[in-house]
Predict the structure of Gfo/Idh/MocA-like oxidoreductase C-terminal domain-containing protein.
Amino acid sequence: MRYPLWKGSAYLFGLKAGRHNSCALAKEKGLICMPNQNRRFDGDFMALKSVLESGKIGQMVRLESHYDYFRENGWYDTYGTLYNLAVHTVDQIISLFGKPDRTVFDVRSIHHPGLGDDYYDLEFFYGNGKASVNTSMCVLIDYPRFTLHGTKGSFTLPPVIHNSGKKKTVGRHKINREPAPKDRWGTLVYINDQGEKVEKKIPVYSAAYEKIYDNLAEAIEQGKEKCIKDDEVIWVLEILEQATEIAKSHKKEKKEGESK
């Protein structure tokens, strides 16, 4: 029997069905259902996660995630950026910190007002800490991919390449197994236990997308816990639904000569 990995947005159908969502139905049938949130295994995200887990920055105060483009006419002329991009970048935050205590969303369309969601700044609050997920189609000078500040230090990590310059691949995409160039590594600065300021480079290794398939096989064959939890999936999709509703609440701009 096949056990497909579903793209996050497809899972929306299960969410809208209330308690009879896809994961609940899978449990009833003794099957395994797990969305393909493979971006948890991006090399840059794993570098960020390793810094957080090391404890060197202390308590998280501020984390900013950027995934931006420069496209003069936007990406879509309708909704879709949230479910195409934020489904992964929001999931990365949820995988680190869980369900936020509260949220603040700024969602707009710069190129197609009232018709799209090509700009968003999604803020998630965890106690005294805040994490945000940001995407815009109007960024020609890169932000860092991640900027992290804590009570004991800071970490910043540049994007490997500007997204607007990435070449589209038709068919299977070959994953580069080499580490990122050293000028693309992260920089960690922190105060150690002796009160000294320490600066070090954090390597960015290749993505490890195979881990999600390994975990799925272990969940099916050995009953191991899934690395993508059902609750996490639902939290992400609830956030995307709320953010999309905000985008839809903006009025469509009337063109010249268009009737009211």
